[in-house]
Amino acid sequence: MAWISKDWAMTGIIKGLIVTMKHILQIGNRKTVTVQYPYERMKLAPRFRGRHAVDEDACIGCGICESTCPNSTIRIVKYGTRWFPEFNLGMCLFCGLCVDACPMNALKMSGGYELADYTRESLVYGPERILFKKEVNE
Amino acid sequence: METETLLLNMGPVHPSTHGVLRFKLRMDGEIIRDCQVVVGYLHRGTEKLGEMKTYLQFVPYTDRLDYIAAMPNNYSYVKAVEELAGIEVPLRAEYIRVLVMELNRIVNHLVFMGSLLLDLGASTMIMYGFREREKALQLYESLCGARMTFNYIRPGGVREDLPDGFIPKLREFIKDMEKRIPDYEDLINGNEIFLMRMKNIGVINAEEAINSGMTGPSLRGSGVDYDIRKVEPYSIYPDLDFKACMRSECDSLARYLVRVDEMRESLHILEQIADTMPEGKFINQRYGMAPTTGAPTAVMSFFPRIFTPRAGEVYSRIEAPKGELGFYVASDGTTKPYRVKIRSPSFCNLVALPKMVAGLKIPDLIAAFGTIDVVLGDVDR
Amino acid sequence: MWTGDKMITNPNAYDLIVAILNAIGVYNIILGFFQDLGMEYILRVIIVLVIIAVLLVFVLLTVMFLSWLERKMFAVVQSRYGPMVTGPRGLFQPIADGIKLLGKEDIIPAKADRWIFTLAPFVVFVSVLLVFIPLPFGRSLIVSDLKVGLLYIIAISAVTPISILLAGWASNNKYSLMGAIRAVAQDISYTIPLAITAIAVVVFVGSLSTVDIVNAQSGYWFGFIPKWFIFLQPLGFILFLIACIAEMGRIPFDFQESEQELVAGFFTEYSGMKFAMFFLAEYAHLFAVSGIIVTIFLGGWTGPALPFIPFELTSLIYFMIKTYAVIFFAMWLRDTVPRVRIDQLLNLGWKIMIPLALLNLLLAAFVVTAGVI
Fold first, then answer.
1. pTM, whole model, 2 decimals?
2. Nearest Cβ partner of A32 from C81, C335, C344?
3. Nearest CA-CA partner of B104 in B77, B71, B131
4. In sequence order, what are the residues at sequence separation of 6 or more whose Cβ sits closer than 8 angstroms to the Cβ of residue A98?
5. Helix B166-184 crosses helix B252-276 at what angle (to 10 degrees)?
6. CB-count burial class (<10 Å; 0-12, 13-18, 19+) for A36
7. Cis status of the peptide bond prior to C338, with omega within 30 of 0
8. Which chains touch C (3 or more CB pairs under 8 A)?
9. Contact, C151 vs C226, CB < 8 A?
10. A47 close to B144: Cβ distance less than 8 angstroms
11. What is the pLDDT of residue C258?
12. Spatial separation of the C-alpha atoms in residues C263 and B263, rounded to whole Å
């Protein structure tokens, strides 16, 4: 009789049913936890590693981020009169090594995470899309 | 009556192969006569990549091995590199490392419980598991900015210090988990149908398990008291009070229960760490380089991008949530490793699966496969 | 019930419509019109068609509501919201799903048996719909009060595995075939305890007619315990419930699909509207079987009459409340338990359920013979 549990009262199943009933009635911190994503969003941590952003004033176009990147995501391109990194996010690991390596502290990763796009080309984020100006608040 | 055996090709696209694993099954009706595991559908050449990247650059790639629990991967590789290069690690960094690894063990076992029950047809547990996992992932997010692929542990320490209010949030998580685990036990452990499906299924005795190279909770479910945290202590584990969970029934249920017990032990470890977290530096700054301009922020780890360890070879192994995770790193004195070999627990545990399931039925294959807790990124590398 | 010129003891929906037409005073006019043409039978056909249309719409609406309810309940159990966007609380989600499925490509595999592959979903759906014919939704709300109603229900339920086997075989897919074989094995082994427990009830009632079974359950013991057969035969009820859940093919007995093992079981290869037919049939089956459980064990539509409301309506409400209670239990169980293994299921069916069902029958026969009730 190994094929059926000796517990004929099926107390285990009843216990499980009680747990699920507690969730149906939402007793004791068993509330709905999901969010209605496109309409409401969860709060991101300040350290969240999303899309890159480059401080326009601080960046010197040295290329250390380029050489640090494990996946050859970064390319230094000319933008206006200066050189800035360009990120091919289709290849990016979002590892954050470039941020750590930046000697000028110009590179950071912002909270942008909705990066899906229709073409591979539009995943290449050139300086026009990633540059920002740091607010000076002395 | 003469019957034919049916060759059933299960996977690589199948709901319960946890990714892209393929079973070639020779079926006699519902009974499995022969099971052949075909791997390699997710092969990305990670070991070869290791030879092409510098020591630091390879760390994010280790995240992609066992993506359910990536911290131990980071740590195992970094531990090898540190031994190779002789890098000292501050005590606080070690505490943070063990903290994130034990947290990851809980995350892994939550996903394990969920996916196992999902394989058995009860889809509620996976949502409960993911609900708690989400809290842990938010802790990780506040810690290092990523939720699954962390790139957090690096030679000399960790990437960033704990953010403000991390320890209180961790305590909250522990308290919450301690309330949730009895819920799971009520839901699953006593369930007669669950017991019917798990008891005496996928039996593998201690000797066979060792011969197959099984490690971790799967091996401890077979009654072998082998936990690398105990037999070859590393990091701060000797100072911590915990026990290696072990059961001797050798079946699927034992492997499952070991993991539930381990979650409790990990919570206990987390509590100890939260109590005794020392102050200090989170990374060895001897190797640091200060930024030339601008105020250094807490985000900066100051670790050089390129360093050259001595020529030599090192094998570092740790107790990852799934078993023994080893990194063999050979250096020829240049900036890149000469060879990286990964001994991944999922792959080695998978070897034992055909022995477990011969003569059982397809549902048992699913159940036994679920209990050895495999991540395909870890199997194929 | 008084319909025109004669008294009918067990009226059905046809008589109800006639009675309603009589009450508003148009029946004799219409009847006279058709009698003048000498084609009285056309009126009968029209009324029957109206009944069928009402039943079909009612069942389909219920099915749509059930599929929403199932998802919603699943979501609530799992701390989620479930469908929220389409309509209030996502109530119109089944309609959106239906439109989506209509727009899907209707794929027939190259090696499939085209005729049988196309036929199977319709057979499933029709066989489930036929179960509703002798099901009393309320007093006189029954399509046809067959004298062999219960036998008819069990017989028609046995058609479903045939259509599943058709689908599984015609798909020419190993998973489909295994799902179909499992479904047949399961249905055969569970129809027997189902029938035996139903017979135990018939022993008490002395009739196979569903209306008689419901009528036998009206009234109270000691003035407050309703005379439902669940109190007379608790063992029979549990066996019948388990057998019914197995018959429905729901977790913990959903071997026809067993998603994690056999991808989607017998309808792995189906897409588009054919898939939708299976989907509808599944929920229609859930509704039908719950209705049968209510009819046989939970007193059907019986309940206290309310003043000023025709009992036809109150009885329908009682029936629906009880049916939804059973459906709720089935969904609740689905949210909680894993699936048993196929051989364990068959063991349970043959080695435990059938002996217990026979024991239950013996007890029932003993009680009736001894004249206790």
1. 0.86
2. C81
3. B71
4. A52, A65, A68, A69, A73, A74, A85, A107
5. 160
6. exposed
7. no
8. A, B
9. no
10. yes
11. 66
12. 31
Q: Name chain A contacts of B298, Cβ cutoff 8 Å.
A: none
Task: Please tell me the predicted confidence (pLDDT) of residue C259.
Answer: 66
Instruction: Kindly state the tokens that stand for B79.
Output: 């531990």
Backbone φ and ψ for B10, nearest 5 degrees, come out as -100, 110
Chains that touch B (3 or more CB pairs under 8 A): A, C
d(CA B43, CA B283) in angstroms, rounded, equals 33
- Three-state DSSP string of A62-101: CCHHHHHCCCCCEEEEEECCEEEEEEEHHHCCCCCHHHHH
Q: Which residues of A touch B176 (CB under 8 A)?
A: 29
C252 preceded by a cis bond (ω within 30 of 0): yes
Question: For residues C111 and C105, what is the distance between their CA atoms, to the nearest angstrom?
Answer: 17
Write the single-letter amino acid at A44.
L
Candidates B354, B352, B353, B350; CA nearest to B379 is: B350
Of the candidates A4, A11, A97, the beta carbon closest to that of B196 is on A4
Q: pLDDT digit string (tens) for C30-87? A: 777 777 877 778 778 888 888 888 888 988 888 888 888 888 888 888 888 888 888 7
| C79·A21 Cβ contact <8 A | no
Q: Contacts of residue A4 in chain C, CB cutoff 8 Å?
A: 344, 347-348, 352
Bridge partner list, B35: B25
Whole-angstrom Cα distance, residue B248 to residue B319?
A: 20
B303 contacts in chain A (CB < 8 Å): 100
Q: Given 3-state DSSP classes, what are the helix, strand and coil percentages for chain B, each rounded to the nearest 5? A: 50, 15, 40
Q: Which residues of B touch C258 (CB under 8 A)?
A: 121, 363
The amino acid sitting at B298 is A
Count other Cβ atoms within 10 Å, centred on residue B287: 17
The residue of A19, A24, A51 whose CB has the most chain B CBs within 10 angstroms, and thus the best one to mutate to test that interface, is A19
CB C296 within 8 A of CB C198: yes
pLDDT tens digits, A50-75: 888 888 888 888 888 888 888 888 88
Alpha-carbon gap: B141 to the closest alpha carbon of chain A (Å): 6
C185 lies within 8 A of chain B by CB: no
B363/C258 CB distance under 8 A: yes
Select from C76, C239, C333, C336 the residue whose CB has the most chain A CBs within 10 Å, as the one to mutate to test that interface. C336
Chain C segment 35-74 residues within 8 A of B by beta carbon are 74
Q: What is the mean pLDDT of chain C?
A: 82
Please list every residue in chain A whose beta carbon sits closer than 8 Å to the beta carbon of residue C76: 23-24, 26, 32
Instruction: Say what the pLDDT of residue A1 is.
Output: 39
Contacts of residue B336, Cβ cutoff 8 Å, sequence gap at least 6: B51, B52, B53, B54, B55
